[in-house]
Amino acid sequence: MPELQAMFTRQRKWMFFLLSFYVLGWGFTAYQPIFLGLIFGTSLSFFNLWLMVRKTEQFGENVLKGKKVRSLGSFSRMATGALAVVVALRYPDQFHLISVVIGLMTSYIVIMIDFFIHSLKIHK
């Protein structure tokens, strides 16, 4: 699983970079609800990424030990997304709903970009 940890480390750096960019946007622009929605959604997306990596490691360990294999936590990730949408709908003056949804998708976008960049580096 060292490849999984290396991927997670690269993706974590990208997520922190995006979060820092969003915080600067929230602090220095007039679009505070949009950037706060991006911060909130991306933070929960980062949590979902961490949860997915942890569950994948546990899944691999259980397969190697011959134990019963449980799910990869899809329900937990969906519940986190539902929580984000409920909070955004409850506080529309603080969080822009579309920004929260875009923030929730950030980890998947980062995973795809990381894959393409890393695969281009390998094939050179």
UniProtKB/TrEMBL annotation:
PANTHER family: ATP SYNTHASE PROTEIN I. Coiled coil: none annotated. It is a multi-pass membrane protein. This is ATP synthase subunit I. It comes from the Bacteria. It holds the Pfam family ATP-synt_I. One of its GO terms (cellular component) is plasma membrane. InterPro entries: ATP_synth_I, ATP_synth_I_Bacilli. It comes from Neobacillus thermocopriae. The chain crosses the membrane at residues 12-28, 34-53, 74-91, 97-117. Keywords: Cell membrane, Membrane, Transmembrane, Transmembrane helix. It is found in: Cell membrane.
